Amino acid sequence: MDILGQADRLPAAARDGEDTAEAELSRLRMRVALLESERAALRWAINHDDLTGLPNRRLLNAVGPSILRKAKRYAVLVLDLNGFKPVNDRYGHAVGDEVLRTVGRRLSGCLINDLAVRLSGDEFAAILTESSLVGARHDWLTMVGAISQAVAEPMNIDGNELAVTASIGVTTGSGEPTTMTDLVRRADLAMYRAKATRSRLYIAGDPR
Predict the structure, then answer these.
(1) Which among 38, 54, 131, 195 could bridge 113 via Cys, Cβ 3.0 to 4.6 Å?
(2) In Å, how far are 103, 108, 137, 178, 193 from 203, measured between CA atoms?
(3) Which residues pair with 115 in a beta bridge?
(4) Which of 205, 186, 196, 206 lies closest to 78, judged by CA?
């Protein structure tokens, strides 16, 4: 009788073991999925600006050279806002932050398969390739002019009608690029020239 009793209990014990193993496997899968999600979030945070959601300087330096190598011709721009500090001082940082988010959206909205970046503060950058030269925007001058106009459009934030403009410096090139750091430095110098001459934009290189 004892032998028969043990035989009856074996299938149930086996099923219990299978259930326990399946539960443990499910737990491990959930743990792996959580770790992968956390890793993806960390990777995103390292490479993006948490205020605007745009890529940051780190990602620009990482992927920029590859984008430029694939382009027949390219332009790198640096954009600095005019009139942002008075807005920030008068209306507060929450409104100022929304201005930066709006400018980021407008900048990236002007590009097609190209890269818009927030460098720091109220300074942005972008890599432009021929993919963004469509329609009436057939050269760098008209392309950058369209970006300047988009940024300068009035914006309504918390019932306040606000507007900022941008000083934009551009450096252009074709073929194998120099370092990303040097291109941004050259565009930055062009931006300061645009700011000094109050001309909104300055292109160092071929504007076509």
Answers:
(1) 131
(2) 21, 20, 15, 17, 10
(3) 127
(4) 186
Which of 147, 118, 143 is closest to 129 using CA atoms?
143
Tell me, what amino acid is at 108? S
Q: Which long-range contacts (CB under 8 A, 24 or more apart) does 62-67 make?
A: 63/115, 64/115, 64/127, 64/180, 64/183, 65/177, 65/179, 65/180, 67/114, 67/115, 67/127, 67/129
Q: How far is CA 32 from each of CA 21, 23, 37, 100, rounded to the nearest angstrom? A: 16, 14, 9, 37
Residues noted as catalytic? 122
Report how far residue 13's alpha carbon sits from residue 99's, in angstroms, rounded to the nearest whole number.
65
As a whole number of angstroms, the distance between CA 139 and CA 125 comes to 18
- Mean pLDDT, rounded, of the chain: 87
Report the distance separating Cα 143 and Cα 166, nearest Å. 14
Least confident of 16-30, 104-118, 168-182: 16-30
Phi, psi angles (nearest 5°) of residue 130: -65, -20
Tokens of 145: 């002019």
The predicted pLDDT at position 7 comes to 47
Distances in Å between the alpha carbon of 73 and those of 60, 62, 145, 169, 173? 18, 19, 18, 17, 6
